[in-house]
Amino acid sequence: MKILHLATFLQGGAGRVIADLVITQQEAGHDVSVVVSKTSVPAPGCANNEAYLEDLERAGIWVERVDSMFLRDYADNLAVVRALCDRYARGREPEVVHTHAAIPSLVALLFAGARRLPLAVVQTMHGWSATKTSSQVATDVSLMNAVDRVVVPSRHAAEVIASLGVARSRTTVVAHGVRDSSPDLDLRDRSMLRDMERARAAGLLVVTCVGTIGTRKSQRLLVEAIARMKGPRSVYCVFIGDGDTAELGGAIDAAHLAGRVRVHGYSRAARRLAAFADALVLPSRSEGQPLAVLEAFRDGTVVVVSGIPELTELVEDGATGLQFRVDDAQSLAATLDRLASLPDPLRHAIADRARLLQASRFTTTMMTNHYIDLYREALAAHVPVAPTPAFTAA
Predict the structure, then answer these.
(1) What angle do helix axes 219-228 and 246-254 make, rounded to 10 degrees?
(2) Which parts of 229-328 fold into alpha helices (H)?
């Protein structure tokens, strides 16, 4: 199958999911190409992670950067359409265009129109931003209702877009998948790993928080919770992720936790650092389907998550992880104390159940197979039905 992926940027957990999907599709024998926006935008998550693009290029996958599928500017969007027309000779277009946001879907539909082709267009909506204007919401909903299928990673996400007006008949849930990964540690990562080892040897509970630093991920709540812990065992915490760290650093200093709470920043080896910790903590206010949780499941790290629907859909309290009330520092502090006091056999049992859950539902192979099935359904819907011969009486 000839597949073209269009994305605003490859960044964060969604970027990792897209890169893994593309590579797995190529390994399965499909002809896969990728186009992303070229120029970054000064906002969190609005740039390509070069590591993801390097992974694709090492795998021999054709990648092109064209501006722009991020900006809502018709001239910029048409520039991508022109690049696709230059790339694909007539009669050699992709069979399926898999888009990873609404504006890439606009580009795909315009390309199909320019070539007068009934291309199958499948869009994944990895996450929904609450900061969109009413006009942007209306545009995105209209585009999702124009493509063949809209894919979301969770039942909650399906309900969100349905409430906005996306037809339920077009929507399918396909969970993200993860696979084994062992990125190299650089010198800075190795130094942090040694600090984590020393903290554990000193009797501290080592936790990490992985994700872009900012209000949506609510890292500051974790700082406040650590300051409120009452149990006998303290926490050593490492924040891993890009973004503006000034406010978070100020909160750490104000809580007098500089010795036990560290901001490591972006790391290609975030998963390896998180896998070494006793727990991964996500105090998020909203999520898509966070890859960090699925990776922690696979790597045997206990997860502690806020009680938002996107996370409670993944994590059952006391069975596959621990939960706390959203935006409640005292609840998180009590949950961390609870985790610190768990006997090792019980903690290992939670990690084992989570690992089994991941292996049964959240693998890259499962994700890839689900998408291929959706592509085939979309393609079948575009196959013209031969007219029934008219009956002529003798």
Answers:
(1) 10
(2) 246-254, 270-276, 291-299, 309-312
Rounded CA gap, 279 and 303, in Å? 5
> What's the structural domain count of the chain?
2
pLDDT for residue 115 is more than 80: yes
Distance CA(336)–CA(318), nearest Å, equals: 13
What pLDDT, in 10s, does the model give residues 154-180?
999 999 999 999 999 999 999 999 988
What's the mean per-residue pLDDT of the chain?
A: 94
Amino acid (1-letter code) at residue 152: V
Q: What is the model's pLDDT at position 388?
A: 62
> Does any domain span residue 156?
yes
Residues 112 and 12 in one domain: yes
Per-residue model confidence (pLDDT) at position 179? 87
Q: Where are the beta strands (DSSP E) in the chain?
A: 2-7, 31-36, 62-65, 96-99, 120-124, 149-152, 171-173, 205-210, 235-240, 261-265, 279-282, 302-306, 322-324
The one-letter code for the residue type at 341 is S
Q: Looking at the structure, tell me whether residues 40 and 95 fall in a common domain.
A: yes
